[in-house]
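Hi there, hope your week has been kind to you so far. Thanks so much in advance, here it is.
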Amino acid sequence: MGGHHKKNLRAEKAKVKLKGAKLPKGLNVTKTDFKVRKIEIREQLKETSYTETGQRQLNLKETLSRLKHHSFKFRTDAMRNVRESVKSGQADHLIGHLNELFQGIAAGALDMEHSVRQESFKTLDVLLEVLHPQAVAPFFHVISTYLKCAMTHIHPTIQEDSLLMLDVLMLRVPPSLLAQRSASTIVGNFIDMISRSRHDNEKSNRTLTMNLGHGKQTTVKWRTKVLLRLQQILATLAQHSAKTASTKHPVHVVHFDENRANYYGLLSPYAQDTRDLYAILHEPKLSAEGAQLQTYVEQLMPLLHDSWLEVRPQQQQPLLPPDASASLYVVVNLISQLWTLINQHEAANSTNELSLWLRQNHSKKFLKNFLEQDGRRFPYQQMPHTQPKGKKLAKEKGPADGGEQCLPQNMAIVQIACQFYPDPSEKQATVFVHLVQYVNETLKQLEKLTPEHQLPLVTALRSLLLDNSLALHNLIPEQLTSLLQASMLAYVEQRYATREGVSTKMLSLLCEIVQQTELYKRFGGEERFALFLGYLPELLLKPTVAEGTLRAMATLCRQMNAIFMSALVQSSADIFLHLSQLQVTGNVQGDDKFENQKRILNLFYYARTCDTRNQLKKALRQLAKQQTVDKDEDDSPSNEQIFSYLQSVLANV
């Protein structure tokens, strides 16, 4: 060891020692005056580019291959690259390969990595947003297939994330495409996510399942999340059915023209019987669509009742926990959507088999589980939220529970009760007294309600005051008349919100009640409706008036309603001057502006019988003066047309 040490010392001493002065200051600086040239491969420059962040943008071949790469980082980068290309408007090279693109992106819904699934849904959202529905339609089966696989996947987290993919499709895909292609299969998958088939002798063929490891979510929260998406799918089906029914028989309007020959068809092209042979012969046979709808109801109704019974508190606890309130919101809205689909199907096929079957099998269960037979559990209220000190409440995506008053839930129960019992007997009188009193009490707090909460209130009023009014008036006349009076007073005092069309829907409801002669008389006729009838002409002084309102006014004039026509005569001068600026909304016949103005002027043909003080003559002279002024300022033919037509209407005044 010592020898080696001495050997090393000798080697160190043998090294050359540089002694002397240091280099001058200018000579120890690195020279930078040499020239360099970047190596470029031109083929790569044609296919690649760089984003603003400096990341390399993949070419088409790399993008499609990386979508199928075994590394999740490569797959994530490829999806992010597609998304950035679409956002920046540089995705023209992807348009011709949509099949491979949708295959790769939609396959991300089945990926075991959560980040890849998230990137897949984000990319799919951006891509569907910019593409036209006609471009998506040929490849929609690819997306829907991966969605169905994700919804039935054995891994719980993939099942949970499949709901996010469905959210993207419901947001970006037209309802018609979603309803036609895969709605029935998706509904079946929803049912499988929260239940399983029963293999015993019970009447119900499915039973609810417990939470199978969906993270920190409770079974109730998971079930509510699934049912909420199912409600949205059924709403999409209802929207598609309503749109199909409205476009089935287009209206053809012909206006009379005295300057040319007019031809009118004597036979109605739509007078044919649309029922099938079984309906004509009164034999119980459902169509394919009706059988599919009945299958939905048979599977869903027991599950919805079981879901509610599982979270419903005991009788000694009147308030609902937040989870129970959210579950009730989804359950009652799903039942309401099922009723909407059944009503649309029966209206299109001129049958009532499904509604009779549903009432026969589920009306008593609904009354027992949601209203406790006599309505003593109604209305429901929620426990106030408690927030621990120093902790913030997590914001979760869920249904609008309606606050502590549970107003949407309670109003939906009112509407469903009217659907199940269109002709209630004395046994249900107590229940409907509770329902009507609750709606009446809610009207007293109308100013405190948001427009979103006023909408279900108006829907419940329509069920009580219009759909079931004749039967309920025989059962509880005083309570129903009081509710009508409070509704009209709230409208005249303008307490309904104008946002979300709440005020317009309430006006439409009151106008429909007025147009039904028997219902109008039952509620007390002119004496009961005097306040509303006197207010109606003021609507013609607003910038717009609804088509339904004009129809109601015409009906009142044909019925020679003295109160309405007297109010119309009193406001005639202001109406004539404002008529050129008035717009009619909701006119499906496509009449021009002057045709709509003539409809309003025709009201005065009937109203002139109530002109005892020559107010119409004064209004006509005032319009003539205004026409002269307008003609000097602006040569507009509209006022001349109004004046000329009004003269012919009031010729004998």
